[in-house]
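tool_call: predict_structure(chain=1)
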Amino acid sequence: MTQKKQNTRSTGFVLGAATVAMGLIAGVFYIFACCVMPALARSDDRVYVEVMRNINDVIQNPVFFLSFIGALLLTGVSSWQLRGQPYRWWVWAALAAYALTFLTTVAFNIPLNNDLANMTDPTAARDHFEDKWVAWNVVRAVLSTVALGCLGRALVLYGAFQRRSASFSPSGGALSGGV
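tool_result:
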């Protein structure tokens, strides 16, 4: 197997892994936006704060961080690997959208989580936390879904480009009589 074929396979693998990681993260933010937070909104202040504190504790685990940070790193690596390709803009757009998602998390959601953990009055804590956190989470859900869509488009174009390149290669495509 030539070096070019190995690079092609690793490039496709990284783009695919970035897409999967992004899908997982977009799904987390989506489920919070359309299910978890509306369900918690029905709770009294004490239950709301207790559950959100518990979620904030348990979400800090290696599996979540692998996806959350992995989506950023894999998309970044993929954007570098695909430089010069005509569909690179889709990966770059995904990287920009997810970088904004990541920054939103760091600048808004995490500080609100920390505030919630440190406040003692459940009513005051909820009043300070809920509306802002929910709004910023919707921003994260939209941005990460845009990033996922961009990576999905890049993956489709990558596959089409690979099929087109293989069909015209001298090693077994259309020009050499291959099927």
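agent: The helical segments are 3-41, 45-58, 62-81, 88-118, 122-167. Proceeding to next step.
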